[in-house]
Design a protein that fits this description.
The complex is a heterodimer of chains A (about 150) and B (about 200).
Chain A: H1 2-24, E1 28-34, E2 37-41, E3 44-47, E4 53-54, E5 59-62, E6 67-72, E7 77-80, E8 85-93, E9 100-114, H2 117-121, E10 126-129, E11 134-138, E12 141-146
Parallel strand pairs in A: 9-10
Antiparallel strand pairs in A: 1-4, 1-6, 2-3, 2-5, 5-8, 6-7, 7-9, 8-9, 9-12, 10-11
Chain B: H1 2-21, E1 24-28, E2 38-43, E3 46-50, E4 55-60, E5 63-68, H2 71-83, E6 90-95, H3 105-120, E7 126-130, H4 138-158, E8 166-170, E9 191-196
Parallel strand pairs in B: 7-8
Antiparallel strand pairs in B: 1-4, 2-3, 4-5, 6-9, 7-9
Classes of the chains: A alpha+beta (about 150), B alpha+beta (about 200).
């Protein structure tokens, strides 16, 4: 009986670790950056230079005259123009099976997208969303503009 | 009751105003590989399918409507975002002599080309995947494919790429380029794929 409990506890612990490991996997990396570009992560503000890793829940922000380009692990290319706010709401990708999902928010500004392997494999698990609409993609390059001044 | 009603009307008006203020636009761009593609724009009222290059959706007064964009408009609105687009990921294939991790002579030239491109790449991240043909057991081919991948990874580390930016994996004989019967030697399947992003 006690043994079974121990086993269950270990299994839970292992699960917790694997979930934590999953959460800690980067979603992508900054490949281009010009002007003032920052990443807001857990209340902290980091300067996003080329080579900075991007994680789930990160907010990417560009100032006027600034741009940023990020390549996600599934080869999705995201690039934002000036005065933009982009949020990586969800990203999961298994490099072996190429299965995964992602959800990217465009709160304001401009975003150009060249979709990657997840969109090719399972387009239904990819979405981009503006304050009012949700975009579904089918192996695609597109651009989005959101006016106004959403700050969160 | 009345106050509640007023409040909800007021919040509706605020929401509608917010909706008006935020203009939104989506434009489908021509795909780099020339293949057909599409974006579906959905909101509470319905959906618009953009399935031709420069097909667009524009939001005004709380409604998405279809419109036709142009290369000029895309350049004006999205030029800065598009100019910041990271380089397109590239892939390379190197072929190996049977049974080991010796590169084929022509693949040494390909390796030199790849090495130069990787060194010029901003913040490169590289996935190296090894494969084998079907000569030998599944287990020994798993090991051999990983050995091939690791040998290319080592060559790239020697070229100056940080080890932390290089992942290596072996897929054994499971993902052949050319399908064969078991125990058939097939040069095209003795390979390592390198994905650079």
């Amino acid at each position: 009986m006690i043994k079974t409990h121990h086993k269950a506890a270990w299994a839970l612990l292992a699960l917790a670790f694997s979930l934590a490991a999953q959460a800690a996997d980067p979603a992508g990396m900054v490949k281009t950056s010009s002007g003032q570009v920052s990443i807001e992560r857990g209340g902290q503000k980091l300067i996003a230079v080329v080579g900075t890793q991007v994680y789930v829940s990160d907010k990417l922000r560009t100032a006027g005259d600034s741009t940023v380009g990020v390549t996600l692990r599934d080869s999705t290319l995201l690039s934002a123009g000036p005065n933009s706010l982009i949020i990586i709401d969800k990203f999961a990708y298994d490099t072996t099976s190429q299965a995964g999902s992602m959800s990217i928010g465009i709160r304001k500004g401009t975003l150009a997208v060249a979709s990657g392997k997840i969109a090719k494999q399972t387009p239904e698990s990819v979405d981009f969303h503006t304050p009012t609409s949700v975009l579904g993609v089918r192996g695609t390059e597109f651009a989005v503009e959101v006016g106004g001044d959403n700050e969160e | 009751m009345r106050n509640e009603m007023r409040l909800s009307l007021l919040s509706l008006a605020v929401l509608m105003l917010a909706g008006c203020a935020s203009s939104e636009r989506v434009v489908l761009l021509p795909s780099a590989d020339g293949r057909a593609s599409a974006v579906v724009v959905r909101d509470a009222k319905g959906e618009l399918v953009l399935d031709q290059p420069y097909a667009g959706s524009v939001r005004s007064q709380g409604t998405n409507s279809a419109y036709r964009s142009t290369p000029e408009e895309v350049k004006e609105r999205f030029g800065a975002a598009l100019a910041a687009q990271p380089a397109r990921p590239r892939s390379y294939v190197l072929y190996f002599q049977g049974g080991g991790n010796q590169l084929m002579p022509e693949s040494q030239t390909e390796f030199a080309k790849m090495r130069a491109e990787v060194l010029a790449w901003p913040a490169p991240e590289i996935m190296v995947i090894g494969h084998t043909d079907r000569v030998g057991s599944v287990q020994s081919n798993d090991a051999l494919s990983l050995k091939r991948a690791e040998s290319v990874r080592t060559l790239l580390i020697e070229a100056g790429i940080p080890a932390s930016k290089l992942e290596a994996a072996g897929r054994g004989e499971r993902e052949p380029l050319v399908a064969t019967a078991d125990e058939v030697a097939e040069a095209k399947n003795r390979r390592v794929e390198i994905n650079l992003r």
